[in-house]
Amino acid sequence: MSEGLEVKGVDLQRSGKAVLHGVDVTLARGRITALLGANGAGKSSLVLGIAGALPIAAGQILVDGRPISGLRPEAIRALGVAAVPEGHQVLGDLSVEDNLKVAGSHLPRAEVKPAIEVALDTFPELRARLSSRSGTMSGGQQQMLALAQAIISRPRYLLADELSFGLAPVVVGRLVPVLQKLAQQGVGVLLIEQFTHIALKIADIAYVMERGRICFHGEPGELVRNPDILHSAYLA
């Protein structure tokens, strides 16, 4: 069976409007794949389509050779795909501890506590806030919690959408090494990042999306050497 998360010829619509057109993207385990492009290019729609939150209109999405199109989000997560949507989305009315427990709900009961401990070792800042309502925390702390929830699900593939959006550089510097460590542990990471210099510095492969289509696929260094490729996509 082939290994990797494969998006093949995917079309996707939102509110009756076509937003993805024949998109092909492959995530390899143990590598960071950057997906760059202007706001509205379709990057977040792709994440939601992979995660099962939006239905695809055409094409195929496979996880290690298994088609996942049409599965419910919880089933896709159980297969090893964890999405961290834009905007540090957490269950604001629940405590930090309860947020972490929810994230491990699909694991065998005996594995939930050890998985939570791994997440808390990654983000010790959350230990002191376990009883706090997550909605009262700073944006940076909420993003740590959102990433911790993904870690608890023990993903094979992690989809990180605008992880640094609205966050101070010091917080971004705290989050980026976590993605690098996950990749080193064999997780395939899709990184959508507003700060292109950060993405290109840590990515193994890069895609650029323009108006719902992939317009570049190659080595990150090529985008550094040819900035006009990105410039054109962001002005489209």
Give a structural overview.
- Helix content is 38%, strand content 26%.
- The protein has helices at residues 43-51, 73-78, 96-103, 109-122, 139-152, 169-184, 196-202, 220-225, 227-235, and strands at 5-14, 17-27, 32-36, 56-63, 66-67, 81-84, 157-161, 188-192, 205-210, 213-218.
- The strands form two sheets. The protein has a six-stranded mixed beta sheet, with helices on both faces.
- A hairpin with a 2-residue loop joins β4 and β5 (66-67).
- α3 (96-103) runs parallel beside α5 and α4 runs antiparallel to α5 (139-152).
- The longest helix is centred in the C-terminal third of the chain and has 16 residues, at 169-184.
- It starts with a strand and ends with a helix.
Q: Mean pLDDT across all residues, rounded?
A: 90
How many strands, which pairing sense, and closed or not: the largest β-sheet? 6 strands, mixed
Question: Tally of extended strands?
Answer: 10
**Spans where pLDDT lies below 50 across 5 or more residues:** none
Number of helices: 9
What sort of overall outline do the alpha carbons produce when their principal axes are compared?
Answer: globular
Q: Approximately how much helix is present in the residues?
A: 25-40%
Q: Report Rg.
A: 17 Å
The helix-strand sequence is: EEEHEEHEHHHEHEHEEHH
In which order are the strands of the major sheet placed? 6-7-8-3-9-10
The computed structural class is alpha/beta
Task: Report the portion of residues in β strands.
Answer: 25-35%
Distance between the termini: 39 Å
